Amino acid sequence: SQTIHQWPATLVQPVGSPLSLECTVEGTSNPNLYWYRQAAGRGLQLLFYSVGIGQISSEVPQNLSASRPQDRQFILSSKKLLLSDSGFYLCAWSGTTGGGYGYTFGSGTRLTVV
Amino acid sequence: DAKTTQPTSMDCAEGRAANLPCNHSTISGNEYVYWYRQIHSQGPQYIIHGLKNNETNEMASLIITEDRKSSTLILPHATLRDTAVYYCIVRGHSGAGSYQLTFGKGTKLSVIP
Fold first, then answer.
1. Among candidates A49, A99, A107 on the partner chain, residue whose Cβ is nearest the Cβ of B43
2. For labeling, which of A6, A50, A99, B26 is most exposed (least CB within 10 Å)?
3. Tens of pLDDT along B95-106?
4. How many CB pairs under 8 A join A and B?
C-alpha cells in the first residue's frame, strides 16, 4: 500500500534561518506531489506541485522553493525564514491518471518562526 | 473565485446523522465533487467523491442533486471522532487545473455528546 512520510512533525526556527522539509512517498511510482500551507486560522493554500522529477510549478510567489530530486521525494526549502512563514505545512501525493481517490496527505509539519 | 459554498459551522448530536450541504452551482460537466475532512492538527483525509450518481462507502454517503448544483455529505451515525472541518471541493480529472485540489473554508462540524 502507498504511504507518505513527512518530517519533522514540529519545528521552531529563528527568523533568517534556512528551512528544509522533506516528504517521501512509498508504494507508488511517478506520483504528483504537492506542498500546502495552512496559516493559523486560515485555509489550506497550495504552494507547489510537481508532476515529475525536476518539474516544479509554483502557485504563490514567496520566500519558499521546492525541489524534486527523486521520483518519490519532494523538498520544501527556504534560504531565510520570515515570521510570516509560520504555519502547518502539508505534503500530499496523487496518482497521475487524474481520477481516483484524490490526494493523500502526510501528517504535516508545524513550523513556528520566532 | 469560490467554486463551492458551505455553512461555516454545524452541530450534530452523537449517534445522529450529520448532513453537510454544499452548493456548487457553477460545476461543469466533467468536474467531480470531492469531500475531505481535517481533524485538528492533522492532514486532510479523503472521504468520498462522485460525479452524478449517489455514492456510499464505509465512511459516508454522498447525495448529488440531479442538476449537480448541490450535494450533501451524510455521516450516518456521527461520533465524537467525526468532529472536524469538512471540505467540499469540485475538481476535474483532466485538463488545466485538474492537478489542483483547492480548499475553501469548509464546515466546522461539532459532534456533541
1. A107
2. B26
3. 655 667 888 889
4. 54
